[in-house]
User: Fold this.
Amino acid sequence: MAELTTIARPYAKAAFDFAVEHQAVEKWAEMLNFAALVSENETMKPLLAGVMASDRLADLFIKVCGEQMDAHGQNLIKVMAENDRLEVLPAVAQQYAEYRLEWAKEVEASVVSATPLAETQIEQICASLEKRLARKVKLNCSVDAKLIAGIIIKAGDLVIDGSVRGKLDRLSDKLQS
Assistant:
């Protein structure tokens, strides 16, 4: 996985820098996500293994993508095909998404609660996280009854475990040591 990230990083960075320069950040995100889906398709995977000439593979890939790719996106596909790197498109799309979130000063946070949260609670959590992280926060909420009560918040490297299950686990660890 680390190798894929290393290979994908320069492509993602180049695409992101180009997108910012041309004010097309969202368009590039859509193109890269679509190209990643195409590269993961069961029919396309064997073709990406290098059995086809790079220019023919690039043409085929671009035809499959159709109108989803503009001329600049097609150029990226051609360059990646020349370097036998089309199989890392999912990692490129993921790396691009990380650059996009950093650029937009956004962070995705997940909130897992024992019971469904009220809209006011979600707004309070969002406001608190935005203040603490100095970024715009996008919350993904889910419910897990195993928590007994409370919530767990994860945003990047930050984990806040305010669940009863977490407190019981920590108490159990202290009693055992």
Notes: The chain has a mean pLDDT of 87. Residues 15 and 72 are 9 Å apart (CA to CA).
